[in-house]
Design goal:
The protein has helices at residues 3-15, 28-37, 43-56, 60-65, 68-75, 82-97, 106-110, 117-128, 137-146, 156-169, 175-189, 207-210, 269-277, 334-343; strands spanning 228-237, 243-247, 258-259, 262-264, 281-286, 290-293, 298-308, 321-324. A hairpin with a 4-residue loop joins strand 6 and strand 7 (298-308). It is built from 14 helices and 8 strands. 35% of the residues are buried. It has 2 domains: 3-216, Endonuclease III, domain 1 (Orthogonal Bundle), CATH 1.10.340.30; 228-343, Alpha-Beta Complex (Nucleoside Triphosphate Pyrophosphohydrolase). By secondary structure, it is of the alpha+beta class. The strands form 2 sheets. Strands 1, 4, 5, 6 and 7 form a 5-stranded mixed beta sheet that branches.
Length: 344
């Protein structure tokens, strides 16, 4: 047991989180789903999604026999939908190649879609107590401050230094607790802003604290200005009160989700609706613009209410477009949920 790990574990026993849903009835499956959900998402946001997901898909067998639409419906609102698609792909692989059991070997877990070295290590450490180092964002922050590791952790050279430290400090025993403890330390105490250094178990020899430069570590990602795109989202309603919804392609932004049809902002609305869906338009009304931001660009959305005339039945339901009244039954892209809820 390293002195580093011992202090972190002692702190965890008194101040760590011990009642998270995935810490109850621990299993490889529950650890896997929670670790994927927690990627780039805070614990408080994940908890209700995890509980609903477990209720609907209590095991890998149930998950592998479900449809991707159903999985996306239970993921809708959590964001980063590639995670949900990878979970579904992995469930199918596990069902066919691993007899329905999440693999217990590190290399096999690492080979599954959406699982990187830190996630694979966290799953096996938490569920089985196997000794694997982890390096999520919280752990990177703790280690970068503790040893004043210069540079942005997203750079390969910097990340390699942090991996070496993570491996060095991971104990041979109590690995499940240590894994949760080091993540908790970063999430609740060694936070990005206003860290609670006075209560930190590593304060005595933290190099950043000694140098009064905690806020400088880890270095921030070099900033670049994000491009702005502008789209019109068409809220096309037929005389029966149903909305025209579009199924997004399986990959890319909002892959596999349902969305409102989009239109370039400079295109005339009535002409486009006529050309694309052979619909005559009774009324067109632009609603206030709002912004939805992604990691690599901003999207300015102009919702546009359109009332179609009685020839709306010309648009037949197919794989890409569908008239819907039960919107809540669809896995919707986040900004589409915002738009439709405001209309309600």
């Amino acid at each position: 047991m390293t002195a580093f790990a011992e202090r972190v574990l002692d702190w965890y026993q008194l101040h760590g989180r011990h009642d998270l849903p995935w810490q109850k009835n621990t299993s490889l499956y529950r650890s896997w789903i929670s670790e994927i959900m927690l990627q780039q998402t805070q614990v408080t946001t994940v908890i209700p999604y995890f509980e609903r997901f477990m209720q609907r898909f209590p095991d890998i067998k149930t998950l592998s026999r479900a449809s991707l639409d159903d999985v996306l419906l239970h993921w809708a609102g959590l964001g980063y939908y590639t995670r949900a698609r990878n979970i579904y792909k992995s469930a199918l692989i596990i069902a066919h190649q691993h007899q329905g059991q999440f693999p217990t070997e590190y290399e096999d877990a690492l080979a599954l879609p959406g699982i990187g070295p830190s996630t694979a290590g966290a799953i096996l450490a938490q569920a089985l107590g196997q000794r694997h180092a982890i390096l999520d964002g919280n752990v990177k922050r703790v280690l970068a401050r503790y040893r004043t590791i210069d540079g942005w952790p997203g750079q390969k050279k910097v990340e390699q230094q942090l991996w070496q430290l993570a491996e060095k400090y991971t104990p041979q025993q109590d690995v499940a607790d240590y894994t949760q403890a080091i993540m908790d330390l970063g999430a609740t105490l060694c936070t990005r802003s206003s860290p609670g250094c006075e209560g930190c178990p590593l304060a005595d020899d933290c190099m950043a604290l000694a140098g009064e430069c905690v806020s400088q570590y880890p270095a921030k990602k070099p900033k670049k200005s994000l491009p702005v795109k502008h789209k019109r989202f068409l809220i096309i309603r037929n005389p029966k009160g149903a909305y025209l919804m579009e199924k997004r392609p399986p990959s890319g932004i909002w892959g596999g989700l349902w969305s409102l049809p989009e239109l370039a902002i400079e295109q005339p609305v009535e002409n486009a609706v006529q050309d694309n869906w052979q619909l005559d338009v009774e009324e067109v009304k632009d609603l206030p613009v709002f912004r939805h931001s992604f990691s690599h660009f901003h999207l300015d959305i102009t919702p546009c209410e359109i009332v179609a005339k009685n020839n709306a039945e010309r648009v037949a339901d197919d794989g890409n477009y569908q008239w819907c009244t039960e919107i809540n039954q669809l896995a919707l892209a986040a900004p589409v949920s915002v738009i439709l809820n405001k209309l309600k």
